[in-house]
Design goal:
Distance between the termini: 10 Å
Structural class: alpha/beta
Mean pLDDT: 93
Helix content: 25-40%
Radius of gyration: 20 Å
Largest sheet: 7 strands, mixed
Number of strands: 18
Shape: globular
Number of helices: 13
């Protein structure tokens, strides 16, 4: 089959690789009909996530048609399914608690050590996202093996097109969980850093959850326009002093809740971010945490901080004093996709949520390297890339 493979920093190629096979009874093989390039894929492309090996198949946002199942799968050949990016067993303590992205059994023992050393506990398995998360081949391919297929895949009813539901794999539930973690309620003012796909879905979700005012912060004109189209007020951080503007827009209190949808590769020319960028490039530091620092400083006393943005290592000059002295609540984590997928699928089917507004480019799988380059180098115009194997 054909698949997009990682070879080194900013070097991805479409290669011919062996077809996947059923390995365990609960496996299924999916013929991929649509897959997407995620903003967190760019962390792999930029070489800032450890544990990648040449030839690894990328991609964790995908859907397709079931073509083969093991005897323990609950799927049936011919079904259309969206596959969550997190791999979850359904039986461990965390899966039973609904914390599916913290699954204890999906990351094989032989690949757990790296994350145990970094984080104190092993992370769960993820599709196409380094050997630190299990080394599972991803879905930017013609076919993919789906472990624990009786737990993860979301069966799609007739009448919904691929592009309407594809983002149930990651970015829609991630934006939704970002807003839920911010405990948004009627009358709230919410600030969202980053108008990439997750940030835009966080804006959309915050509005659906009753926020009175949502402020979106970015510097890309097209992305700010998309946020404005979702009902947000916008701040271009290159034109405006963000903290002063947020204080004015919130009656002098600061936002009730803030969402960092940027993560470990913040942009901007602030002194802290320039230093972080240098350290990241030379391998001294892993994360550029400027957006998170700003969010912690901006939120009102007693406010809520939600962090769906991906962080992988360490950050200097973290405003721990602001976190403690202001009495803030901080919630983070990979997304528990299975916990909200049924509700979100219903909302899509009823027309309450539209996901297709994000899509800027539709390419064949063979054009995936161009898609990565465009999404990385021109994030204003390349808002979301869908690939068709």
């Amino acid at each position: 089959m054909r698949a997009l493979t990682w070879h080194s920093t900013r070097d991805v190629r479409v290669d011919t690789v062996p077809d996947p096979q059923i390995v365990n009874p609960r496996d299924a093989i999916i013929e991929v009909t649509a897959t997407a390039i995620c903003g967190s894929d760019l962390h792999l492309y930029d070489g800032v996530i450890p544990g990648m090996k040449p030839g690894d198949i990328l991609g964790h946002e995908f859907m397709g048609r079931v073509v083969e199942t093991g005897p323990g799968s609950t799927l049936t050949p011919g079904q259309r399914v969206v596959v969550p990016f997190t791999i979850s067993c359904g039986a461990c303590l965390f899966c039973q608690l609904g914390q599916f992205s913290a699954c204890d059994n999906s990351n094989p023992v032989e690949t757990q050590e790296a994350s145990e050393l970094l984080y104190g506990h092993a992370v769960s398995g993820l599709f196409g996202y380094s050997h630190m998360t299990g080394g599972y081949p991803g879905g930017q391919a013609q076919y993919v093996r789906v472990p624990f297929s009786d737990v993860g895949p979301i069966v799609i009813p007739e009448g919904l097109a691929d592009e309407q539901v594809l983002f149930l794999s990651d970015i829609l539930p991630t934006g939704w969980m970002a807003a839920a973690n911010a405990d948004i309620g009627p009358g709230d003012t919410v600030a969202v850093w980053g108008c990439g796909p997750v940030g835009l879905f966080a804006v959309q979700s915050a509005r659906l959850m009753g926020a009175e005012k949502v402020v979106a912060i970015d510097h890309h004109p097209n992305r700010l326009a998309l946020a404005r189209g979702l009902g947000a007020e916008v701040i271009d951080y290159r034109q405006t002093h963000v903290l002063e503007a947020l204080m004015e827009m919130s009656g002098g209190l600061g936002p009730d809740a803030v969402i960092d949808a940027v993560g470990m590769e913040s942009h901007g020319f602030s002194p802290d971010n320039l230093l972080d960028t240098v350290k990241q490039k030379v391998g001294v530091g892993a994360d550029r945490a400027h957006a998170l620092r700003m969010a912690l400083m901006a939120v009102r006393k007693g406010g809520r901080v939600s962090v769906p943005g991906v962080y992988g290592g360490f950050a200097d000059t973290f405003p721990l004093g602001a976190l403690m002295e202001k009495g803030l609540q901080l919630r983070t984590g990979q997304t528990h996709v299975q916990a909200c997928s049924e509700d979100l699928l219903r909302r899509i089917g009823e027309g309450e949520i539209d996901t297709t507004f994000l899509i800027s480019h539709r390419l064949s799988l063979e054009e995936a390297p161009r898609g990565y380059a465009g999404f990385s180098d021109n994030q204003d115009q390349w808002t979301k890339v869908v690939l068709r194997p």
